Prior knowledge:
alpha+beta, 4-stranded antiparallel beta sheet, 14% helix
Amino acid sequence: MNEYEYIYMKKRRDFGRYCNFDSVDAKILGQIERQPQCGDMFVEQTIINAVFHNIVTMSEHSVNTARVKTGSRVMNHVEGGWPKEVDYTEAQDTLKYRKRLEKDPTYLSAVRQLTKQTMMCLEQNTTIDLFEIYFQDEEPDHLPENLTMKSVALFKDPSDESRSVTKIGWHPEGPTKFVASYSNLKFQRMSEDMPMASFIWEVEERNVPTTELRASSPLICCQYNHKNPDLLIGGSYSGLVNYYDLRKGPSPAAKTTVEVGHYDPVYDVVWLQSKTGTECTSVSSDGRLLFWDVRKLSEAMDECVLNDGNKDHPKTLGGVSLEWMQEAGPTKFLVGSEHGIIWSCTKRPKKQVEIGTWFGTEHRGGYGKHFGPVYAVKRNPFHVKFFLTVGDWCAKMWMEELKGPMLQTPYYPSFISAAAWSPTRAGVFFLCRHDGRLDAWDYFYRMNEVALTQQVSDRALTSVSVQAQGRLAAVGDAGGVVTLLNMCNGLVDPAPNEKNLIGVMFDRETTREKSLEQIKKQAGTQKHEKPADGAGGMQIDEEKYHEREQAFFSELGMSGDNLGTDLSGMKK
């Protein structure tokens, strides 16, 4: 077949002229008359299969073009520029030639000329470009993004009477269930027909609660056991502590008695880390912090009376919030009071529970207490020495070694009722407001303003709890509705090296507060000694004094005797 093949090369311009299309009027090339009798020849079909396509018909051809020939060559570069009589491989010969050349006058003049041109180039390099983009190729550590929160579901209280969601606790094994406590904390606003039950909700089932927790008095707080999620502990409005075992039913498996329990509502309960997993603690507005073992609720294991720190006449103050974290120390407890101060309590083995620090108490060296009850005390999960409190129209950041706040948010137009840290990001925390908004603060991005504000409800927000994975947050309001929020990635995923940078920022603020306290102490210890004489020990020359006094009155045109002041009492 090779004898019938002929390969030729031809340029495109030799193929012929390009096609030139013009718009012309339509022309009738043919016409078919209508024939109605032809319709009887067709048979109707119920199913018609037709295939259509809109694929452009294309053709393919190949053209052999001239190929570029490439080749590899080797180049050997050696030192050159030396005269023939100089062997550049010998260091002594090249050194002698350089010294002889440097003594030549023409060499010096040539160097001066080259230096002038070099200086011009160097000065051009040192000029500043006003329009240069300095950080074009650098990536910032943390890019601000549009933060969002999305409402996933609403869980409404099935009771007819309006109750507030006082506390929310997530299931320890995952974002599947949570327990919500319902109560009415307004004084003498609780009717006789108000339901007493609280509920356990499942995230996937939003219409009907999964389990009902029955009680003789409304529950203000309820929390899951970390080791066994079938066990729950709850504090009631009547002061009783209820212990629930879901395997035995919705009624309390055990509860405290009136004689040994609290006298006022139990505002917060916490499970403690122990070998048996049955120890817990509770705090109430009766001014007592009680420790329990759910296996024997007939008596308290230990007790701590919360006072104002006055050594002469101590006054008992009520507690409304409680915080305990294993990482911060199994013996350390933080308690928020009704009067705006925070206690740091220590429970040592075989010793009585003691109050170590009164944060915000002035006669104990503190300052900056809240103007209202401290409804939330939350430790930072990454830096446990620092904790967050809310108790009025602002939130404050504290450190265990300081008796006053080191950071504080601006005052809000509405009251702040609850707070929670993000479990995945060290610098993010959430605040609940009475105007129905939830604020998200991101200290890694900025500290002077809120990162995100979300309108959650038309009613006042009363509680918030963030799931351990950081993606879901449950927010309760005064109308008995729990809103489930889904956080965006910016509020969940930590930034690179965020934990260390937030720690450095906290340490910096701590050092600043310690320096300010040291300056205040030094200013307070400096006492000005009063002089013995009334004039302060000043040496006054009487003759010069009279001369200046006469010159002053003469300039004013005044004459006469006893125009000046008396120098009695002055030290001469």
